[in-house]
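User: Good morning. I'm curious how zinc ion would be positioned relative to this chain. Could you predict the structure with it bound?
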Amino acid sequence: MSRTKISHWLVIVSLLTMSGVALGASAPPRDATAHMERVGDGVYAIFHDDATDEWPHSNTGVIVGDDGVFVIDSTYLPSRARADIVLIREMTKKPVKYLISTHWHMDHNNGAIAYREAFPGLTVINERESAKFLELNQVFWSKLSTAEGSAKRKSLADLEKQFTTGKDGDGKAVSETDKKELAKHIAQRKNELVELAQLEVVTPNLLFDRDLRLQFGHKRIELHNWGRGNSPDDVTIYLPDDKILFTGDLVVQSPLPYTLASWPVGWIPILKDLEAIPADVIIPGHGPLMHDKSYIVTVRHLLEAATSRVEAMVRQGRTLDQIQSTVDLSDVRREFTPWVTAPDADWAAVTKELVERSWRGVRGQG
Ligand SMILES: [Zn+2]
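Assistant: Good morning! Here's the predicted structure, ligand included:
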C-alpha cells in the first residue's frame, strides 16, 4: 500500500543557546546491567544487557546540549529507562528536553513514560507513520502479553516448573549453572509482566515526515527518515559537526542483524547512503560502538546476496519453501567472525526470515 508522505519536508527548529554547566571529567557511569560510553564531546551511548531471555533493550543515545539533553531510544522497559535517567544525571544535571524513538519496535520505546514522568516539559519526537505503529503495538503487546492464559504467562509457568522440578522440557536434569540462569530469567519475566500490565503509552508532541534539523544549543542534530529498511520508517540521528551517527536498527550487531519483518530490497540503498555519511563514530541500534563502516558493508553484502540469489530462483519458478531450503549464504557469513561463531540456529532463523522478506520484496509484494 502506498502512503502519503511529504517528501523532503524540512523543519528548522531553533532551540535555546544559553551556555550551561561544563561536564565533569569523571568516567561515564555504569550500573549492574548497563554502562555508558563517551562517544564524542557531550555525546554518550548507553549499552544494556538484555531485558529478558526473549527481549533485548535498545542502545540509548545521550546528547548533552547547552541547557538540556536529547535522548535517543528509551529501551524496552520503564524500569531500565529510569535507571538510564540515573546514569544521565550522574553526567549532567541538565533536564532531558527531547526524546526520539528511531522506529516503532517496542525495545526502543516502551520506556518513554519514565522520561515523561521525570521531565514534564519533555518534547517527544516521532516520525509521523511510526508514531501510529508505536502506539498501536504498545497497546497490543502489553494486552496480549498480560492477558490471562497468554503465551507469555504459559512460557513463564513452564520455566518455573523446570526450576522447581530441576528438569528441562525433555526431562533432563538442569545443572546448577542453568538453574541460576533460570532463576534470573524467571525474575526478569515476572518483572516484565508487571511493567507491561502498567505500561503507559507516551504520545509524541512533535511529528516530522522526512527530515528534521535541530539547532540544540551549540549542537546541530539531523534526523532523517529513510523509509522502508529494517522497519517501515527507520530514522537516523546524525551530528554533522561531531561526525557521530545513531543508526537505530538499520544497523544491528547482536551479533546478527535483525531481519524480522524487514524490507531488504529498500534496505540495500539505505545502507549505501549510510556508508557515504562522513561519520567517524557509529552507534547501532544494538551492539557495540563502531569506528568504521566495515560492518555496514558486510550487512549490505548479506542483503545483496539474499535478494539476488532469491531473485534467480524466483526466475526458475521455485516455491518459497524450495528457495528457503536451497539458498546458501554461508559465504557471506564467513565475512564476519561473530556471525560464524553465533549459534547455527540463530543464523538459520535470521536468514530464513531474510529469504522470505527478499522473496516478497523482489516480486514487489513487500
Ligand atoms: Zn531493536
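The first helix runs from residue 78 to 91. The mean pLDDT is 93.
Let me know if you'd like a different ligand tried.
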